[in-house]
Design goal:
The structure is a single chain. The protein contains nine helices and twelve strands. By secondary structure, the chain is of the alpha/beta class. It has a single domain, classed as P-loop containing nucleotide triphosphate hydrolases (Rossmann fold, 3-Layer(aba) Sandwich). β11 and β12 form a beta hairpin. α4 packs antiparallel against α5. The radius of gyration is 18 Å and the shape is globular. The model has no long low-confidence stretch (mean pLDDT about 95). InterPro entries: AAA+_ATPase, ABC_transporter-like_ATP-bd, ABC_transporter-like_CS, P-loop_NTPase. One of its GO terms (molecular function) is ATP binding. Pfam families: ABC_tran. This is ABC transporter ATP-binding protein. It comes from Novosphingobium jiangmenense.
């Protein structure tokens, strides 16, 4: 379990408490400036709260050595930057750095991550030659290569076309079914409604709602947080938000 207890970061988060369970997909949603990215980074141990704590399986993240935390939590920021013009394969291989495993094991993990993101034709290409969407897939493949217990990704679908969005959603759901905890920052409320098991709604750094999508994204909370008079159409799993 990944748990935030009274998490406070001045001007960003205010006493946020939540419990995230492995084997589920959690979507963090909210308007611009709600604190979504800050919360995700705090859950990854990259933002130290002023008060409160983040624990992983009951142990404070601050007590985990960096390498252990990197093995257990794979974090993808919203704007991933790479300092060198590496090949896709080399970039994905960086995801194996926290592990002390054989070259064969590392190569197999990299191969699987590249395949999962449909990057085989681009594996030897330099990052500078890729489109924005291809680069985003390569950065996520690096996270997958780590084989972490938790995947925390900030708007991983934003740069992807529809086909690759759907492929990524299927992959993340499959990982969750295998026991990985998946936490995504998303702006698309329909995506959160249809594909998440658990939704956290933030506004101005405060936790407004959390729970199953149909509860946390009720028409009441959509109106309260986004100031939109809207209603949900369609059946479970195929719902659309009509304005």
């Amino acid at each position: 379990m990944l748990e935030a207890l009274g998490l406070t970061i001045p001007h960003r988060l205010h006493e946020v408490t939540t419990q995230l369970r492995a084997g589920t997909v959690t979507a963090i949603v909210g308007p611009n400036g709600a604190g979504k990215s800050t919360m995700l980074a705090a859950l990854a141990g990259l933002h130290a709260p002023t008060t409160g704590t983040v624990t992983l399986d009951g142990q404070p993240l601050a007590q985990l050595v960096r390498q252990e935390r990197a093995r257990r939590i794979g974090y993808l920021p919203q704007a991933g930057e790479v300092a060198w013009n590496l090949s896709v394969r080399t970039l994905v291989g960086l995801g194996r750095l926290p592990h002390r495993t054989s070259a064969a094991e590392n190569a197999e993990a990299v191969k699987q991550a590249i395949a999962a993101m449909q990057l085989e034709p681009l594996a030897e290409r330099a990052l500078a030659t890729l489109s924005g969407g291809e680069r985003a897939r390569a950065l996520l493949a690096r996270v997958l290569a780590t084989e972490p217990h938790w995947i925390l990704a900030d708007e991983p679908l934003a740069a992807l076309d529809l086909a690759h969005q759907q492929a990524l959603i299927r992959r993340l759901r499959a990982l969750a079914q295998e026991g990985t905890g998946v936490v995504l920052v998303v702006h698309d409320l329909a995506l959160a409604m249809n594909h998440a098991d658990h939704v956290i709604v933030l506004d101005s750094g405060k936790l407004i709602a959390q729970g199953p999508p149909q509860e946390a994204l009720s028409e009441h909370f959509v109106a309260q947080v986004w100031n939109l008079k809207a209603r949900w159409l369609g059946e479970t799993g195929h719902r659309a938000l009509a304005l």
